[in-house]
């Protein structure tokens, strides 16, 4: 299988660097082909601007969405964007290796998403009508691929629980796992996390490495997060979860299919969506 590893850390000798190297070596030993996008080593341009579009006239007002749509459709995106899109289409699974900085990803990785997930590639895909709002959240260009975050965290694990001061980790990662990865169709595995890493000792590394290898072994077989598909009949015409779903859940967890709930419900389709009058 083909695995893309998107790596965002400025120091190769960091724990993130060690986990990246471990992933490459272990997955290769398992027979997978691995490509790495080392964003700092690549000098990745994190800022989304008019330079992303070869035919953009700098004298004209920039609508990034409109320019992205036009450039993707006409093959006039910046070559570095096209190269990363090709890697995503090549991959059967995508790993993201990064430290949690200020409750999110490093800016360089956010800039990779901003630029690579172009209009027509990762969003703005599919027909709208009735309960259907395009191909997203379980459908889209990247459907059929798996994704997993590997995140190093400076805080202690209890800080990232439901009652922990930093908030539950599932909630903090929801914008990435649901809003970035599931949105264009990827199935998302639960994250691999290493806590309290600023105080990690050499003696603790073998247990972290063993745990990471176990997760890599299950990259194509472990259960994924059961996010509700947008077009699975769970949401109404305003994209609001229908009554009776979610049970006693609250917050972001209502967007997970609960035990006993069907994965697919009847969907209201408008004449426009079916092509009939």
From TrEMBL:
Keywords: Oxidoreductase. It comes from the Bacteria. One of its GO terms (molecular function) is NAD(P)H dehydrogenase (quinone) activity. The keyword Oxidoreductase applies. The keyword Cell inner membrane does not apply. GO terms for cellular component: cytosol. Residues 1-211 form the Flavodoxin-like fold domain. Gene3D superfamilies: 3.40.50.360. Signal peptide: none annotated. Belongs to the NAD(P)H dehydrogenase (quinone) family. This is NAD(P)H-dependent oxidoreductase.
């Amino acid at each position: 299988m083909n695995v893309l590893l998107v790596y965002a850390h400025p120091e190769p000798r960091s724990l993130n660097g060690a986990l990246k190297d471990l992933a490459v070596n272990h997955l290769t030993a398992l027979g997978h082909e691995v490509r790495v996008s080392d964003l700092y080593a690549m000098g990745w341009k994190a800022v989304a601007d008019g330079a992303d579009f070869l035919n953009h006239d700098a004298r004209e007002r920039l609508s990034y969405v409109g320019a992205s749509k036009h450039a993707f459709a006409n093959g006039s995106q910046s070559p570095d964007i096209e190269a990363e899109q090709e890697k995503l289409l090549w991959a059967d699974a995508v790993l993201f290796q990064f430290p949690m900085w200020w409750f999110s990803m490093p800016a360089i990785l956010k800039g990779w998403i901003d630029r690579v997930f172009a209009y027509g590639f990762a969003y703005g895909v599919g027909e709208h009508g009735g309960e259907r709002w395009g191909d997203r959240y379980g459908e889209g260009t990247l459907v059929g691929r798996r994704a997993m975050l590997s995140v190093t965290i400076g805080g202690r694990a209890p800080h990232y629980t439901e009652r922990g001061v930093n908030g539950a980790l599932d909630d903090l990662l929801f914008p990435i796992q649901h809003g970035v990865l599931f949105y264009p169709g990827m199935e998302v595995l639960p994250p691999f996390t290493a806590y309290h890493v600023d105080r990690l000792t050499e003696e603790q590394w073998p247990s972290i490495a063993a745990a990471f290898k176990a997760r890599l072994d299950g990259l194509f077989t472990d259960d994924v997060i059961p996010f509700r598909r947008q077009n699975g009949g769970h949401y109404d015409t305003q994209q609001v979860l229908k009554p009776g779903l979610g049970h006693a859940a609250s917050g972001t967890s209502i967007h997970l299919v609960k035990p006993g709930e069907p994965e697919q419900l009847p969907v209201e389709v408008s004449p426009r969506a079916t092509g009939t009058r």
